[in-house]
Amino acid sequence: MPRNILKIIDKTIIKPLKIHVTLVFLFGGLLMILIGASLENTCGELLLRIGSAILGAGVFAVIMKSAQFTELFQNHIANIFYRPDKALKKSILIERWEIITKSLLNNVIPITYKEATDKIKDQYIETKMEYHFQSYYTTYDISVDDDSNWATIKVRARTTLALAPGIDNPQLIQTYFDENSSDDNEDQFKLLALYLNNVDLSPQFNYKKKESGDNAYELRVPLVEYVKSSGNGIKEAPFEKVLEWKQEITKDPFIKVEISRYIKGLTVRYKITDKHKIHFRKFGLGETSGKGTGKLDGEGYMRWDITDSDTLLLPGQGFIMVISPI
After folding, report:
1. Are 315 and 123 in contact (CB under 8 A)?
2. Which parts of the chain have pLDDT scores under 50?
3. What is the CA angle 197-165-93, rounded to 5?
4. Which secondary-structure segment (H or E) carries 34?
5. How many CB atoms lie within 10 A of CB 315?
6. Which pLDDT does position 312 carry in this prediction?
7. How much is the mean pLDDT over the chain?
8. Is residue 313 a contact partner of residue 264, using CB atoms and an 8 Å limit?
9. Cβ–Cβ < 8 Å for 208, 173
């Protein structure tokens, strides 16, 4: 008989309470608050506190059982922690990065941590993320006139340009600084070829002098119409260009190349006429700095593999070539 009573109690009371536990919390807490409010003694105050806690638990249980909240947590809140690039806009991500970086640097350089954060953002993040290059292969042919000491430098570059996702109106930006600027600069600096995705763009685009007054010439090409998605969904395209310029090596024997975008894999080759040689040195942060050694290839060029195809170069890294007589 007692067992039957227990079964009846379990079926009619216990199981329904388990199924509707949120309602039990809500109505139970509300009932205790009403009873506690009617009792003007210590027991009443205790019931008020317990009832408030149970009512709060009931509200939270209702929210947690809501399908809308569950979906929100799975698709949005989890993304903030584990996939911030999918959950937040680029501007918000950069803002969060600044907060974290300032907090870290404040413990190291408390006086200038804000300035350091701004320099890092400008050098590596803010204007450097629209695209990057993969397997960058560049060749220098340098011819020196012994009588005038002017060098003619022809540079051929081949690489793959890859667009970052979610960028509006990305533009290819290439900058050349002319240390020998003069009125006849057009004869000294030439864009001989420009190909993007095997389309000849040299008739449409060329370097134009910037208004900054620092002898800088800039090439800008809109990328949306030339760089298309490949089969794997990545937007990338082959990129080629040929430049030629002249410089007086007695005044300016340096050829300095500073990387302005991320590059994954870089090879540099050069060849110079007799009676002259090239002193080659890498610069910048990380393992690419220092002298290293170049190797003569089968075409008479000195070849420097700055990084392999799996190693990333950062903006600000690069190399210097110094022309000198033997």
Report:
1. yes
2. 1, 185
3. 150
4. helix 21-38
5. 19
6. 86
7. 80
8. yes
9. no
Q: For helices 113-124 and 90-106, what crossing angle results, to 10°?
A: 140
Cβ partners under 8 Å of residue 15, min gap 6: none
Structure tokens at 51: 């009832």
- Under 8 Å between Cβ of 164 and 131: yes
The per-residue DSSP string of 73-140 comes to IIIIIHHHHH-HHHHS-HHHHHHHHHHHHHHHHHTT-TTTHHHHHHHHHHHHTTTT-SEEEEEEEEEE
- Return the number of other C-beta atoms located less than 10 Å from residue 243's C-beta: 20
Q: Which pLDDT score is estimated for 138?
A: 97
Q: 168: helix, coil or strand?
A: coil
181: Cβ contacts below 8 Å, ≥ 6 apart: 215
Beta carbons within 10 angstroms of residue 114's beta carbon:
14
Q: How far is CA 178 from CA 66, 84, 86, 125, 182, in A?
A: 65, 42, 42, 26, 9
- Separation between Cα atoms, residue 270 and residue 141, nearest integer Å: 6
Amino acid at 12: T
Nearest one of 88, 86, 167, 178 to 127, comparing CA atoms: 167
CA–CA dist 277, 65 (Å, integer)? 75
Distance CA 117, CA 124 (A): 11
- The pLDDT assigned to 136 comes to 96
Strand segments, DSSP code E, in 182-317 are: 189-196, 199-200, 208-209, 216-222, 236-248, 254-258, 263-272, 276-283, 295-296, 302-313
Question: Per-residue pLDDT tens for 115-156?
Answer: 988 888 887 876 667 899 999 999 999 999 988 999 999 999
Rounded Cα distance between 230 and 234, Å, is 6
Q: Are 159 and 196 in contact (CB under 8 A)?
A: no
- The residues, ordered by sequence, that sit 6+ positions from 221 with a Cβ below 8 Å of its Cβ are 171, 172, 194, 196, 201, 205
Residue-wise pLDDT for 227-251, tens only, equals 887 666 778 999 999 999 999 999 9
